[in-house]
Design a protein that fits this description.
By secondary structure, the protein is an all-alpha fold. Helices cover 83% and strands 0% of the residues. The mean pLDDT is 81.
Length: 143
């Protein structure tokens, strides 16, 4: 769980860094009208990350039988969150839709890369004796 908390922290720092750098770049090249779309896209991804963290922490206490159903429900909840916030962004006149979409797409790419990089570093580290859901489900299949 310690590694997962570290992963969420890294994602949130990446979101804040992308919000700042994207805003600075858009301002410096004269696209000030696109900054609100950029920030709204990053806010959507921050909300997505926080919901993912809350849902994942609840999954840690779930039984192995409930994990599959809960995971599907959690996925649908996160998609609804992103879609509803995107619709709200479309309704706000100062939010540029294309910039919002670019921010969401870039943040998804960054999240995937961070997950892949941090996941490889955790997988290559020694097992510290923590029991995780994957090990529980593998043990249940063997029994």
């Amino acid at each position: 769980m310690k590694e997962y908390i570290q992963f969420i922290r890294h994602l949130l720092w990446a979101c804040f860094f992308m919000a700042t750098m994207g805003s600075v770049i858009l301002y410096s090249i004269g696209y000030e009208s696109h900054i609100w779309g950029w920030l709204w896209g990053v806010i959507i991804m921050i909300a997505y990350t926080l919901l993912l963290a809350v849902q994942s922490s609840k999954l840690m206490s779930a039984t192995a039988e409930n994990v599959t159903a809960r995971t599907a429900i959690n996925l649908i909840q996160r998609l609804i969150l992103v879609a509803s916030m995107a619709v709200i962004g479309i309704k706000i006149p100062s939010v540029d839709v294309i910039t919002m979409g670019v921010a969401i797409a870039l943040m998804q790419l960054i999240m995937f890369c961070m997950y892949w990089l941090l996941g490889n570093s955790v997988m290559s580290a020694e097992d510290n004796g923590d029991v995780n859901i994957a090990k529980l489900s593998d043990n249940n299949k063997n029994n």
